[in-house]
Specification:
With 283 residues, this protein is α/β, with parallel strands linked by helices. The chain is 38% helix and 19% strand. It has 10 helices and 12 strands. The strands form 3 sheets. A 4-stranded parallel beta sheet has the order 1-12-10-11, sandwiched between helices. Strands 3-2-4-5 form a 4-stranded parallel beta sheet, sandwiched between helices. A 4-stranded parallel beta sheet has the order 7-6-8-9, covered by helices on one side.
C-alpha cells in the first residue's frame, strides 16, 4: 500500500513560534503561568503544556496573584483582556501569530480610515474575535456563505474586508463579486489576510486527494484549518477521515485501498503523523 504524506505538514510558522515561546518561558522557571483557552488547537500539545505547569483558565479574574505570567495564545486574544491583565502588572507573553496580528492591524486601519468593516470568518472562533476586538467591535462578522441582509449595509460608501487567516481561498473567491453586486459604494478595499502556509497546505491536500483512495486529515476536532482540509479532500470525492491520532484508525478503513493520502493541520506535531504511518504499515 502506497502512502503519500503532504510536504506541507507539521507545525506552521505561527504554531512553532508560539510553542517555542511557551517552552522558553517554562525553561526560565516562571511560576503561575496562565493561558486563557488553548495555545493551539491540538489536545496532545495542550495536555503536554498543562503537565509542564501551564494553568488553563477561562477569564482573567481566575488569576489571583499579580506576580504571574499570562500567555496570549497563537490565535490572539481580545484587546480589552490584554489591557486588563497589564493594568494588574501581570507579565504578558504574546504568542499571537504574526499573520493574525496583520489581520488585526488591517481591521483597525479600515475602521480608523472610515470604512465599514466586514470580517469573513467563523463566528465565535478565537482568532476572529481577536480581529473584531482590534476594530473596537465595529463592523460585522460574516461566514463564507454571506448569510446577511445586505440592504442594511447600502448606506455605507466605503467598505473594507479582512479574512480569518485559515479561510479556504476557493470558498471566498466569489465574495468580492457578491459584495459588488449588493453595494452602491464609492470604495471597496480588500486585504488578503489568508496566510501563505494555509493556502499551500490546502492546495497540497487537494493534489494528494486526487491521487488517493482514502485521505486521512490529522488534527484537532476544534481546529478550523484542519476542518477545511477535511472539507477540501471530501469535496474531491475521496473517502476522507478527520482523525486526531493513530488511535482513531483501524484496519477496515484500508480495505481494498492501494493509496493512502495524509494531510495534517497546522497544529499537528510531526510525531503524530509518524505514529499514524507506523500503524498503517503494521496493517
Amino acid at each position: 500500500m502506497k502512502i503519500i504524506i503532504s510536504s506541507h505538514g507539521g507545525f506552521c510558522y505561527g504554531v512553532r513560534r508560539a510553542y517555542d515561546m511557551v517552552k522558553d518561558v517554562l525553561g526560565k522557571g516562571n511560576k503561575n503561568i496562565y493561558i486563557i483557552g488553548e495555545l493551539i488547537h491540538n489536545s496532545f500539545v495542550v495536555k503536554e503544556l498543562e503537565e509542564l505547569g501551564i494553568i488553563r483558565i477561562n477569564e482573567i479574574n481566575e488569576i489571583k496573584d499579580n506576580d504571574s505570567t499570562l500567555i496570549i495564545r497563537s490565535h490572539g486574544m481580545p484587546f480589552e483582556l490584554v489591557k486588563q491583565a497589564a493594568s494588574r502588572g501581570i507579565d504578558i507573553v504574546d504568542t499571537t501569530c504574526p499573520f493574525v496580528k496583520k489581520a488585526q492591524a488591517y481591521a483597525k486601519k479600515l475602521i480608523d480610515e472610515g470604512f465599514f468593516l466586514i470580517i469573513i470568518g467563523d463566528q465565535g472562533h478565537e482568532e476572529v474575535e481577536g480581529i473584531h476586538s482590534a476594530s473596537g467591535y465595529k463592523g460585522i462578522i460574516l461566514n463564507k456563505d454571506l448569510d446577511f441582509d445586505f440592504s442594511e449595509l447600502k448606506k455605507h460608501k466605503k467598505v473594507g474586508l479582512v479574512f480569518q487567516t485559515t479561510q479556504n481561498i476557493k470558498d471566498i473567491a466569489g465574495i468580492v463579486p457578491e459584495i459588488l453586486n449588493n453595494f452602491d459604494f464609492e470604495e471597496l478595499r480588500v486585504y488578503n489576510t489568508i496566510c501563505d502556509t494555509t493556502s499551500n497546505r490546502q492546495a497540497d491536500a487537494k493534489t494528494i486527494a486526487l491521487q488517493a483512495d482514502v485521505m486521512l486529515v490529522v488534527g484537532g476536532k476544534n481546529s478550523a484549518n484542519t476542518r477545511r482540509l477535511f472539507d477540501i479532500c471530501k469535496a474531491e470525492g475521496v473517502k476522507s477521515y478527520h482523525i486526531q491520532s493513530a488511535d482513531d484508525i483501524h484496519k477496515d478503513m484500508f480495505s481494498g485501498v492501494e493509496t493512502v493520502g495524509i494531510s495534517a493541520g497546522a497544529s499537528t506535531p510531526d510525531i503524530i503523523v509518524k505514529a499514524i504511518v507506523k500503524k498503517i504499515k503494521q496493517f
